[in-house]
Amino acid sequence: MKPRLRHRLEYGLLRLVTFVLRLVPLSFARRTGQAIGRLGYSPLGVRRTTVERQLAAAFPGLDADGVAALARQSYANLGRLAIELALLPSMKEEGLRALFEADDDLHVLEALGVRERALVLFSGHVGNWELAGAYLASRGIRMNAVVRRMANPLFDGFLNRTRSRVGMRIVYDSDAVRELIRGRKEGRSAALMADQGVLGLASTFVPFFGRPAKTPRGPAVFAMRFKAPIVFVAAVLQPSGKYRFVAEEIVVADTGDRDADIDTTVANFTAALERLVRRYPDQYFWQHRRWKRQPPDTPPALRDPVTQPVGN
Questions:
Q1: pTM: predicted TM-score of the whole model, two decimal places
Q2: Domain ranges of the chain
Q3: Angle, nearest 10°, between helix axes 153-165 and 5-21?
Q4: Is 208 helix (H, G, I), strand (E, B) or coil?
Q5: Which of 64, 105, 154, 305 falls between 20 and 30 A from 141, CA-CA?
Q6: pLDDT tens for each residue of 39-90
């Protein structure tokens, strides 16, 4: 798509901000991002109702003040992520690894032979998902990362150049089947995000915080087709100010009933994501309407909380 004037202005602002932030310590840049992110909650109120209602539904034990506090932290986290992503192109490999604690779960991938064969790596919008992929690439893990095109083609190019520079091979979702099959033959793992209900994408409905959520089937389908393990991976910020790389192998169902096995496997990797989000609720992307698409027979109490009347 040919860039429009708005795209050029947005991209120019991004490059200006990136240039300025490279001149200050990372800790200061992060705090700046958090402060900007909080503005999205108040006074701007960008998707504030969506975030608060989803948090209240996911954590019914929280009172209004608790929901507001967690929502504010979520916006601050999003602002920090944006700053870290903008600075990623300027980081050398040593600097990237320095963002992570030495104690990590890379051994989970090593035990599954990730350097000798292709695995299916699943992640969600928790922690810093871009850093998770960059970290694995910096550790020599070869992968094809499936991505969606962004509305701004200039920002799309910037982000994909950044991803490629750190060692990931970028595959657009429209080319995923062909490129992941080719990558498997080369021993490259498939990296997919699968926690957003996208219109037109092969999906199934599985529980997420007790409510049916439309979830892509891709990781389960590729794991069965490749006869490869699925590993849930993420990078979550710790009190130390560094990230911890976490990984968990997912049980791939194998009863002989392909459709049922896919649904069970999707539920398994979604449950792994939910467990991590429960530990780090402020680091999840609550700004996305996770329960927007649901089965028509969903009970009223379990429908999309964003559209439910207040008090239900």
A1: 0.93
A2: 5-302
A3: 40
A4: strand
A5: 154
A6: 999 999 999 999 999 999 999 999 999 999 999 999 999 999 999 988 888 8
